[in-house]
C-alpha cells in the first residue's frame, strides 16, 4: 500500500522490519506519525494486516489546533468565490483519482469494488462541488426598521471537529468537511480506527487544490482521541457519524464548553410495502435497503412491513432474487456482497441471526457464514427472516449486517403505529401506487428522511439527518451551512440614543 497506487501516493513510510506501511495523520499540511497508541489495520476480506496506525496524542492535537487556528484565519479571509474555486479543484482531483481511492476504500472497508467505484468517491466529490457552488452565496438578511439599519451576517464557527464511522469513510469525510470549509471554518477530522486511509488522501487532495495548510487535518485515533477533540475548549463544533451510545458520550463531552453538535447516528428503519406496490420495484428496494454494502448502512430499511395480500408473492420473488446475490472477494467486480468490517462485528451479526432463530423467526434465505476460498475475512450470507414479531431482538436492534426482517401488516394505521414504535427515527420508506397514501404515510412516519417508491437515495441537495435518537441536525442541502455558521445580528442606529437619564 505504500508508494503509488494508480498514480496516487498512499500510505506512508514503511515501519521497521515487517514492511508494513504506516497510515499517518495529516497535520499542518504534512503526513505525520502520531505519538500515541499503535494498532494494526486489517483488510476485512483477507484478514491480513495492511498498515500500522499511530493515534494522535495530546501534543499532536495541540499542534493541529495551532495549525487550524492559523489556517482558518487565512481561509476565512478569502471571499466565498475564492473558497469555492479551491473546493471545485478538490472535487475534480477526487474524480480524477476515483479508481485508486475506490480501491483503497475497498481494502479498508471490505465493500464491493462495484459499489466503491461508482458511489463512494463520486458522492464525496458531488458534495464538495455542491458546497463550492454555495460558498459565494452565504449571506445574511437586511431587516427593515424605521430607526435603524439591521442586518445579519453568517460567520464561520472557527474550529470544527468531524468524527467518522467506518462504513463510508471518504464520503463521510467529504459530507462533513465540504460545508464546514465552504463556510470558512477549519476541520479536524478523526476517521474511524477501522478505516484510517482515505481521509489522509482527502487531506492531500485539499492541499493540492490550494487549501491553506491546517484548514483540513486528519488525526488518527480511537475513542479517546475523539473524546479529547470533543472536550477541547478551542473547538466550536463537533459533527459525529456513529452509533447512538457514542453520540450520547460525544454530546456530553461537547457540553462542557457548549459546543454545537451534529449527530448522524444509528437506526432501525421501516420499509413499508403496500398491497398496491409495484412488486419488482419493491423487492429491488428491499434488497438494496438490506444487502448493499453488506448491510452496513445506517439508514437501511431492516424492518420490511409487507401488506398481507402481497406477502406470498413478495417473499417468493425476494427469495429467488436473494439467492442470486454473489458474495465474495470485494476486489472482484462481479462481487455484490463483501466482507464484514471485522471478525468481531461479523460475530455480532451472526449472534443476532442465531438469536432470531431462537426467538422463533423463520429463515427464508441465508442465516450463516459464507466461505470465500482463499479469504479469511468474515462473510455473512444475505439473510431474510419471515414470521417476525415486533418484540423480537432482531426487529428491535440495529444489526448493521445483511439481515432483513419481514413483518406482515393489515392496515395503514396499524403499520404506522408499529413502524414508529422505536426510539430510533433515521429513515423510512413507502411503496404504493396511491399518491395520496404515499404522502400521508410519509407525513405520519417518525423519521428524518422518508422515501416514496425508492430507498436509500441521498442526493446532495436533500438534507440528511435523523429524528429522535437517530440524530440532531443535518448534513447535505443548504441547511448544513446553518450548522457550520453563527448568525450575527448588527443594529446600526439611524436616529439618536433614546435616553431618559439625566
Ligand atoms: P461508533 O459509534 O463505534 O464510532 C464512531 C466514531 O466515534 C469512531 O470514529 C470512533 O472512534 C469514535 N468514538 C468512539 N467513542 C468515542 C468517544 N467516546 N468520543 C468521541 N469519539 C468516539 O460507530 P461505528 O461502529 O464506527 O459505526 C457504526 C454506527 O454508525 C452505526 O450505529 C451506524 O448506524 C452509524 N452510522 C450512522 C450514519 C448516519 O449518517 N446517520 C452513517 C453511518 C453510520
Automatic annotation (TrEMBL):
<dbReference type="InterPro" id="IPR029510">
    <property type="entry name" value="Ald_DH_CS_GLU"/>
</dbReference>
<dbReference type="InterPro" id="IPR016162">
    <property type="entry name" value="Ald_DH_N"/>
</dbReference>
<keyword id="KW-0560">Oxidoreductase</keyword>
<comment type="similarity">
    <text>Belongs to the aldehyde dehydrogenase family.</text>
</comment>
<dbReference type="InterPro" id="IPR016160">
    <property type="entry name" value="Ald_DH_CS_CYS"/>
</dbReference>
<dbReference type="GO" id="GO:0008802">
    <property type="term" value="F:betaine-aldehyde dehydrogenase (NAD+) activity"/>
</dbReference>
<dbReference type="Pfam" id="PF00171">
    <property type="entry name" value="Aldedh"/>
</dbReference>
<dbReference type="InterPro" id="IPR015590">
    <property type="entry name" value="Aldehyde_DH_dom"/>
</dbReference>
<dbReference type="InterPro" id="IPR016163">
    <property type="entry name" value="Ald_DH_C"/>
</dbReference>
<feature type="active site">
    <location>
        <position position="264"/>
    </location>
</feature>
<protein>
    <submittedName>
        <fullName>Betaine-aldehyde dehydrogenase</fullName>
        <ecNumber>1.2.1.8</ecNumber>
    </submittedName>
</protein>
<feature type="domain" description="Aldehyde dehydrogenase">
    <location>
        <begin position="43"/>
        <end position="490"/>
    </location>
</feature>
<dbReference type="InterPro" id="IPR016161">
    <property type="entry name" value="Ald_DH/histidinol_DH"/>
</dbReference>
Amino acid at each position: 500500500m505504500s508508494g503509488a497506487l494508480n498514480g496516487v501516493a498512499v500510505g506512508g513510510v514503511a515501519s521497521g522490519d515487517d514492511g508494513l506501511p504506516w497510515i499517518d495523520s495529516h497535520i499542518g499540511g504534512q503526513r505525520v506519525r502520531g505519538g500515541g497508541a499503535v494498532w494494526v489495520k486489517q483488510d476485512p476480506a483477507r484478514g491480513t494486516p495492511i498498515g500500522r496506525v499511530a493515534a494522535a496524542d495530546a501534543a499532536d492535537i495541540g499542534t493541529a489546533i495551532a495549525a487550524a487556528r492559523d489556517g482558518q484565519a487565512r481561509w476565512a479571509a478569502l471571499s466565498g468565490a475564492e473558497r469555492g474555486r479551491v473546493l471545485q479543484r478538490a472535487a475534480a482531483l477526487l474524480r480524477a483519482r476515483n479508481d485508486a481511492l475506490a480501491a483503497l476504500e475497498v481494502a479498508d472497508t471490505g465493500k464491493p469494488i462495484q459499489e466503491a467505484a461508482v458511489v463512494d468517491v463520486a458522492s464525496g466529490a458531488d458534495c464538495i462541488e455542491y458546497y463550492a457552488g454555495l460558498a459565494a452565496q452565504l449571506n445574511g438578511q437586511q431587516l427593515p426598521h424605521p430607526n435603524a439599519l439591521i442586518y445579519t451576517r453568517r460567520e464561520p464557527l472557527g474550529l470544527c471537529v468531524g468524527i467518522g464511522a467506518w462504513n463510508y469513510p471518504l464520503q463521510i469525510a467529504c459530507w462533513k468537511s465540504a460545508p464546514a470549509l465552504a463556510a470558512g471554518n477549519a476541520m479536524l477530522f478523526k476517521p474511524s480506527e477501522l478505516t484510517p486511509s482515505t481521509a489522509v488522501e482527502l487531506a492531500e487532495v485539499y492541499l493540492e487544490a490550494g487549501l491553506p495548510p491546517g484548514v483540513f487535518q486528519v488525526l488518527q485515533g480511537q475513542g479517546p482521541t475523539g473524546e479529547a477533540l470533543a472536550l477541547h475548549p478551542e473547538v466550536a463544533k463537533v459533527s459525529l457519524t456513529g452509533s447512538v451510545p457514542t453520540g450520547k458520550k460525544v454530546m456530553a463531552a461537547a457540553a462542557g464548553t457548549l459546543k454545537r453538535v451534529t449527530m448522524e447516528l444509528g437506526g432501525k428503519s421501516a420499509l413499508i410495502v403496500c398491497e398496491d406496490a409495484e412488486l419488482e420495484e419493491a423487492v429491488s428496494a428491499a434488497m438494496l435497503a438490506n444487502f448493499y454494502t453488506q448491510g452496513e448502512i445506517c439508514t437501511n430499511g431492516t424492518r420490511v412491513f409487507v401488506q398481507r395480500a402481497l406477502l406470498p408473492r413478495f417473499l417468493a420473488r425476494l427469495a429467488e432474487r436473494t439467492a442470486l446475490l454473489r458474495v465474495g472477494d470485494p476486489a472482484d467486480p462481479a462481487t455484490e456482497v463483501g466482507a464484514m468490517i471485522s471478525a468481531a462485528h461479523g460475530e455480532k451479526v451472526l449472534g443476532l441471526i442465531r438469536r432470531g432463530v431462537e426467538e422463533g423467526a423463520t429463515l427464508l434465505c441465508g442465516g450463516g457464514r459464507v466461505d470465500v476460498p482463499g479469504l479469511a475475512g468474515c462473510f455473512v450470507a444475505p439473510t431474510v427472516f419471515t414470521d417476525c414479531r415486533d418484540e423480537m431482538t432482531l426487529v428491535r436492534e440495529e444489526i448493521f449486517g445483511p439481515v432483513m426482517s419481514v413483518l406482515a401488516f393489515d392496515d395503514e394505521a396499524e403499520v404506522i403505529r408499529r413502524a414508529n414504535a422505536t426510539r430510533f427515527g433515521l429513515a423510512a420508506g413507502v411503496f404504493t401506487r396511491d399518491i395520496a397514501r404515499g404522502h400521508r404515510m410519509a407525513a405520519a412516519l417518525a423519521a428524518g428522511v422518508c422515501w416514496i417508491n425508492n430507498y436509500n437515495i441521498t442526493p446532495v441537495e436533500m438534507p440528511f439527518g435523523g429524528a429522535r435518537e437517530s440524530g440532531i441536525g443535518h448534513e447535505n442541502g443548504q441547511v448544513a451551512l446553518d450548522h457550520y455558521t453563527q448568525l450575527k445580528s448588527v443594529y446600526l442606529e439611524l436616529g439618536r440614543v433614546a435616553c431618559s437619564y439625566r
